[in-house]
Design goal:
seven-stranded antiparallel sheet, globular, alpha+beta, 4 helices
Length: 237
Amino acid sequence: MTLTKPHENSNQTTSAPADGSYTAETYTRKADHTPQTAQSESETYVLSLATDAAHHQAMTALRNKYFPPKLNKLSAHVALFRALPGSELPKIEESVQKLVRYYQPFPIIADDPFKLSHGIGVEVRAPPARTIYSTLKEQWNNFLSKQDLNFKPHYTIQNKVDDEEMVRKAFEQVRSEFGGSTGTVTGLSLYLYDRGFWRLKKIYSFGQQEEHQQPSSAMDNLQQDNWPALPKAGSST
């Protein structure tokens, strides 16, 4: 299995080797980003919003433009929970399966850029997402990581940039040129977190039991290597 660098909010605590590779020997996670369970978890999972293809591609194009290429291994995403324990997977799947039956697709708007400590985020407006998060948090509170006890819906389009001037210029450009992107949240996606890869386990569509269990196309994985070339932000689609 080829390993790649984790995404921008991953919990990698060691520096990347000079050749850009990560190995099992150098990989570890911060305590605040690990599930609060009695045992060490061999598997953790990510739950994110699933959106329509056009919105997803627009936000991924923006991320591709500003995220450091060597560190950019995922397409754009809005994660609700980033470290769900594998030992609780049956409960997690049951909770999500029951919840999505009560929701219909709802709008998502991403249009308000803000600065991160080493990059740029774009705030997301999709009020039902907060309700979904709060409902699941209440059920899973006893095993959530400290990181997952809070939720600010956003896309990260740049991170891990130490040059403050570079971040400032990029932020000003995004603020002046990015006109926002609207779309539809169609369900929830559950991924196995694999040292930087997000490997799809299931997509749960709103109003349905589930869409499928295995990736059926490049769009089902958030690994950048699986994505075709996308237009630069601001270009027509």
